[in-house]
Every structure is written in structure tokens, then in C-alpha cells.
Write a structure and sequence with these properties.
This protein is mainly α and 513 residues long. The chain folds into 3 domains: 1-215, Growth Hormone, Chain: A (Up-down Bundle); 217-269; 277-513, MFS general substrate transporter like domains (Growth Hormone, Chain: A, Up-down Bundle), CATH 1.20.1250. 72% of the residues lie in helices and 1% in strands. The chain has 17 helices and 2 strands. The protein has helices at 25-47, 53-60, 67-91, 93-113, 117-145, 152-179, 184-187, 189-203, 218-239, 244-267, 281-311, 316-321, 324-344, 348-365, 374-402, 408-442, 469-499; strands spanning 7-8, 22-23. Strands 1-2 form a two-stranded antiparallel sheet. The longest helix is centred in the last third of the chain and has 35 residues, at 408-442. It starts with 6 loop residues before the first strand and ends in a 14-residue tail after the last helix.
Length: 513
């Protein structure tokens, strides 16, 4: 381990002009240990529930509403993230993180005890409120104790924690559901919550916080919640092929909520997301890069299992295992990107290189088909993971490096909010592109309008006549080609935003801004 050395941080003083705190390497490790458990919990809960959804729906007689088991968590966690960030700028990180962990633990117990689907959905919504605090406060605490240029020294720990939870979540969830009960996927959270609470309660005392006079923007929080909930509902309904009237209603509410929220932020004495953040081009670019990177990553995570199952005949377990290179290599990319950022003190060229690599990876993956060697496909997946892994943590560093001390929580919340929305858009958009590409290539054939992707896999799958099997295979390959090209277009947009990013030097020891 390196010898102790003091590192000036973005201390959570809450007062512009206050002196920055200085932490040794050992103190940083102590502080980070608690928030790593929070990151692990947040990542685990986003994936552990997925393999259990059918069993939950069967047990609680709720197949018609099973999507809300996931959506309820996503709705509340996304809407609450910037609220946590702003409140923590006022009251301090510890004061927000500990209640968030406690709420997450209570909600997990309620999920495990639920005997009906409405109760489970309500408990998942409460769990999302706690989960929002876990990620927002974890990111803000890291910004408090580690200066931007030194962030790469600890980036592998954070990325590795997220990746390990993301990989182990479906495995643990599937095993527990099969051998124990779906209830256990929620009970397992309680000991992790206890560890995170105790560690954070002890170690975060080192963060000094001077509360500043402030008024909470309750109206802004309500309007943001309405806008985000309506937008995510719109995406969910679009995926379920709801009729145009329902989609128009959700879209109208989302647009009206967004406009009202923007106006409120201009009028509020102490806005939830201060407009000054969005007058800073570096912050705006960093947030957009993170959102686009999340959209591409979730698009790939959604498409790849389907590609292996539908286009290459792999089983569910095998297709899940073939996602591991994407997650593992993205962790390696985060470490490499952090080391280069620490060495050179700038991140623009690093991010340009990473996004270029991932764009090329998506383009060459778009040419793959059932006959492409698996080793070649895994190499292309590794290119995607490495490139996005290099970019994503550094996009957060860009945002936190450019904002004032008083806005660290708000800026972090805004960044995480747009990443969550990017993730939701990415998976929904790629699903729609895949289905549309498949349908377009069946046009003019006897199967036009008669068969969709759902007919090729799962309980509703149908037998394809042998004389049309080649047609279906060609349409399927074409659909995946279009979807992977769409992912490449997203990373290309992120590349374009990065080109306009001002390459501001990262602070290695700074006072308040």
C-alpha cells in the first residue's frame, strides 16, 4: 500500500469560501469502504430481482403487472436522485446517506414480507427512494474526499464493486429463487445494509459540514417527480405498444412537467438544480456524455443476451455468462481511464479514445451473424466495454471538477438523473429499433405482419416453417445489425459532444471554487 499522503478534497463544507479538508490515503479508504457497500447494494438490487420476476408474478398472481416490479423502483429512484443531491449540499452527506440506508433496509423487509403484488410494488417504490440516496450520496462522498485528479487511484474499487454486483445479481437471484424462495432476494439486503450503515455512520464523521441558510424547493421537487414519472411511464407504455392516446397523454404530462420545472428553477430562491450549473458548458457536456454513454451501455446489455439466444442459439445461462466480458472489461477501462487522468491531469483525449473504440466495436459487431466465431464477437464486446469503461467515470469527474463546492451534490444528482434516463431510453430505444428492423426485413414475405420477435423465443414461441427459416434468420440478423448500428450512433453522438468539451485541467489539491 502507498505511504500516507494528504490529499486536498472538495470538502463538504456547504459554504462557499470555506477551507478544503485534507485526507490521507488511509482516511480515504475508510470513507470509501462504507460507500462501496452502498454502491454494491444499489447495483445488486437493479439486477437480482430480474430472474425472480416470473416466480413472483406466478406466486402473487400478477402476470399483467409484473413490469411494475422493476418500474416502480426505477421511477422513484430516478426522480429522487437530484433531490438527495441538493439536500445533501444543505444538510451534509452523512445526514442524508444514513436515512437512505435505513429506508432501503425497511423497504427490503417489506418486499420480502409482501403477500400481494400491489404491496410488493409499493415496497419497491419505497426501496427506490432509499436506493436513490445510496448512489447519489456515494458519488458525492467520493467527490468530497478525493480530488478530481486523484480519483483514478480509487476508480477501480468503485467500478469493480459495481461490476461484481451487476454480474452476481442475476446469478444469486436465480439461485435463490430456484432453491429457496424469491423472498430471499430481499432478505439478503439486510445484513449488507447493516454493514453499510455502521461503516458510513463511523467513517463519515470525518466530513466537516457547516449548514448554510437555505430554503428547500418543494415545488421543484414535485414537478421534477411528475416529469420523470411521466417520461418513464411513456417509455414503458411505448415498449408495451399502448395506443396513441395513452402515449400522447404521458408525453404531454412529461413535457408540461419539464417546462414547469424549468420555470420553477428560474424563480426559486434556492432551486433544486441551480440554473448556473447549466450555464457551464463543461458541466453540460459532462452530463450529456454520461447520459449517452449510459444509453449505449444499457442498449448493449439489453441486445447482447437476445443476440446470443436468438441469432446464435445460446441458452439463457450461456447468454448471461457471455455478458461478463462487457462488465469485466468496462471495470478495467475505468481503472485505465483513471490512471491516465491521474498521470496527465486531463481527460478529453482519454474520453475521445474510449468513445472511438466503443464506436468501432459497435460497428464491427453490427456485421456479426450466426457464423461469426464466438471469440471474435467477445473481442468486439470487449472493445465496447473498454471504451465505455474509460469514458463513464471520467464524465463524472468532469462534472464534479467544474462545479463549485456548494453545488457538488446538486451536480452529482443531475448527472445521475440524466444517466438513469439515458439508461431507460437506451434499452427502450434499442428494443424498438430491433423490432422495427426485424419487421422491415420481413416486409414483402409471407410472414409480414404475422410474426414478431416474441414469437421466436419464450413461452409464446412458434415453429417456423422450414422453407421460411432462412428468411426469418436473415430478418433477425438484419434487425440486430440495425440495432448495433444505432448503438454506434449513440456513442458517435457522445464523441461529438466530447469534441466540444473544454479540456479543463483536473485539480489535484484545490480549495473551494
Amino acid at each position: 500500500m502507498d505511504a500516507p499522503q494528504p490529499i486536498a478534497s472538495e470538502a463538504s463544507t456547504g459554504v462557499r469560501g470555506a477551507a478544503a479538508q485534507t485526507f490521507t490515503h488511509q482516511q480515504i479508504i475508510r470513507a470509501v469502504s462504507g460507500v462501496l457497500l452502498c454502491i454494491f447494494l444499489s447495483a445488486l438490487d437493479q439486477t437480482v430481482v430480474v430472474p425472480a420476476v416470473p416466480a413472483i408474478a406466478a406466486d402473487l398472481n400478477g402476470f399483467g403487472q409484473l413490469g411494475w416490479i422493476v418500474s416502480a423502483y426505477l421511477l422513484t429512484s430516478t426522480a429522487a436522485t437530484p433531490i438527495y443531491g441538493k439536500l445533501s449540499d444543505i444538510y451534509g452527506r452523512r445526514a442524508l446517506l444514513l436515512p437512505a440506508i435505513a429506508m432501503f433496509a425497511v423497504a427490503s423487509a417489506l418486499c420480502a414480507l409482501a403477500q400481494s403484488l400491489p404491496l410488493l410494488i409499493a415496497a419497491r417504490a419505497l426501496q427506490g427512494l432509499g436506493g436513490a440516496g445510496l448512489m447519489a450520496m456515494a458519488q458525492a462522498v467520493i467527490a468530497d474526499v478525493v480530488a478530481p485528479r486523484e480519483r483514478g487511484r480509487y476508480q477501480a474499487l468503485m467500478a469493480g464493486t459495481w461490476a461484481s454486483a451487476s454480474v452476481s445479481g442475476p446469478i444469486v437471484g436465480g439461485w435463490m429463487t430456484e432453491h429457496l424462495s424469491w423472498h430471499w432476494i430481499f432478505w439478503i439486503n439486510l445484513p449488507i445494509c447493516a454493514g453499510a450503515f455502521l461503516a458510513s455512520a463511523r467513517t463519515l464523521r470525518m466530513l466537516r459540514h457547516v449548514r448554510r441558510p437555505a430554503r428547500i424547493d418543494y415545488l421543484g421537487a414535485a414537478l421534477l417527480t411528475v416529469a420523470v414519472a411521466a417520461f418513464l411511464t411513456l417509455l414503458s407504455w411505448a415498449g408495451e405498444a399502448k395506443d396513441g392516446g395513452e402515449l400522447a397523454m404521458a408525453g404531454g404530462v412529461a413535457a408540461a412537467g419539464l417546462v414547469a420545472f424549468v420555470l420553477q428553477q428560474r424563480l426559486a430562491a434556492d432551486p433544486l438544480l441551480p440554473p448556473r450549473l447549466f450555464r457551464n458548458r463543461v458541466i453540460v457536456c459532462g452530463i450529456l456524455i454520461g447520459a449517452l454513454g449510459s444509453a449505449a451501455m444499457l442498449g448493449a446489455t439489453f441486445l447482447l443476451p437476445l443476440f446470443f439466444q436468438l441469432a446464435r442459439g445460446a441458452g439463457e445461462a450461456s447468454s448471461g455468462a457471455q455478458l461478463v466480458p462487457l462488465l469485466v472489461v468496462s471495470t478495467l477501462g475505468a481503472f485505465i481511464g483513471g490512471q491516465f487522468a491521474r498521470r496527465f491531469g486531463r481527460v478529453k483525449k482519454i474520453m475521445l479514445a474510449g468513445l472511438s473504440l466503443s464506436t468501432v466495436g459497435f460497428i464491427v459487431l453490427a456485421t456479426a451473424d450466426g457464423g461469426t466465431p464466438t471469440a471474435v464477437i467477445l473481442l468486439e464486446i470487449a472493445m465496447i466495454g473498454l471504451g465505455i469503461g474509460v469514458c463513464m467515470p471520467n464524465s463524472s469527474v468532469v462534472v464534479q471538477n467544474a462545479c463549485e463546492t456548494r453545488d457538488i451534490g446538486a451536480a452529482t444528482g443531475a448527472s445521475l438523473l440524466l444517466r438513469s434516463l439515458g439508461s431507460a431510453v437506451g434499452s427502450t430505444l434499442m428494443s424498438a429499433v430491433l423490432a422495427a428492423g426485424f419487421a422491415a426485413r420481413l416486409a414483402g414475405t409471407p410472414l409480414a405482419g404475422k410474426i414478431g420477435l416474441g414469437a421466436l423465443h419464450g413461452p409464446g414461441s412458434v415453429a417456423i416453417p422450414s422453407d421460411l427459416a432462412g428468411t426469418v434468420a436473415g430478418a433477425l440478423a438484419g434487425g440486430f445489425h440495425t440495432a448495433f448500428y444505432a448503438c454506434a450512433a449513440v456513442t458517435l453522438m457522445a464523441l461529438g459532444v466530447t469534441a466540444f468539451l473544454e479540456d479543463v485541467p483536473l485539480r489535484s489539491a484545490q480549495g473551494p471554487r
